[in-house]
Amino acid sequence: MPKIKVGVFGAARGMTMVHVLAKHPDAQLVAVCDKYKPLLDKVDQKAQEHGLQVSLYEDFEDFINHGMDAVVLANYANEHAPYAARLLQSGRHVLSEVLPCETMAQAVRLVEAAEASGRVYAYAENYCYMRGPFEMWRRYASGDIGEVQYAEGEYIHDCSSILPGITYGERGHWRNRMYSTYYCTHSLGPLLAITGRRPVQVVGFETNMNAACLARTADSVLCSCGGIEMVTLDNGAVVKSVHGGLKREPGSINYQVYGTRGMLETNRWDGNSMSAYIEGERLCRGELTHYAPEAYVTGDLARQTGGHGGSDYYTTHFFLEKILGRPDGEAYSIDVYQAVDMGVCGILAYRSILNGNIPIPVPNLRNKSERDLYRNDHACTNPAVAGNQLLPVTPQFDTARTPDEAFEPIRRLWLEGKNLE
Fold first, then answer.
1. CA distance 320 to 109
2. Which CATH superfamily is domain 141-304+338-401 in?
3. CATH class given for the domain over 4-126
4. What is the structure's pLDDT at 219?
5. pTM of the entire predicted model
6. Which residues, 6 or more positions from 15, have their beta carbon under 8 angstroms from its beta carbon?
7. Of 228, 223, 242, whose CA–CA distance to 159 is shortest?
């Protein structure tokens, strides 16, 4: 069987996918695109190490014309949907990094592009494939704990010290415009994958700002507060999702699912272990076990891919499996509908915050009848996209007043390869 010809757009985050694709038996890495040439030089070095001929592009318009079957989108997190739609329309399969879309209008366009293309769209929410959450996904599907009643997801990651390396000192970088609930799918996504349920309502909250953090990061709002989504699922279950730059080292990646017959929970301080409680025939009597889940894929390449607890391998692997029509791809590759479910909860949660924490319905974009209400909904914090629907980055203060020169020290640190202390 011929190998799937794959290109990668974005060579920073995309370097992990480059590593997997360079060795994967079902893939042929053929092209990489990035605006930053030093990253392309690193790709070229890796390609030579593996004896590969990989075309390198600094312009997407040249890259999209390269002969390839599929593309991994690892560009800026707020720009995935427009590129995904174009690539799907061009006949390519798409694996999109986090996040799926920036606006509700983009969510509609993305769904319709995937439907019209007949190609595979997969969402690379790698936290679904960490050993604990992925074990919970499979155990829930087998019926071990019955039907979900309540669940919690937590992704706490303080990025303030690495601000130079992740924003390059660019005032307009998406991280500097990111509102509190936007980056929600690391905490919420695994819970939707595990339970297979759909969100129907969300209420959003954001914590107060960390003034000390702001004073040390060029008055940027990056990682200075936490975002919370309280989500109601289509069976009436309730989910709490919390994420952001709260102070905790190491950061927290934690998931709990309570069902009608038991519960599953990852270990808050040890990402390699988890617990399960399964009720027996008597009420309030059951078996509690603590254990370390085994890796689902045990091959050399999976073991050698260490990013995010080894989960980075699975997003690309299951994408390829889905293209090839194999059972694991069908079962575990996250499709466009579940991707937008994960993403739009954060978009709508912020509207809840701006309107006094009111409940906001979450549309089911599988239904064509629910799409028209959002087809021209461009509301977001990005001036280039929102137009006259521009939202503030936070209701707590006006970030627009931050002078441009405040970002210059951050850019100097990035150029020097240094972090904040």
1. 24
2. Dihydrodipicolinate Reductase; domain 2 (3.30.360.10)
3. alpha beta
4. 56
5. 0.95
6. 39, 42, 43, 46
7. 223
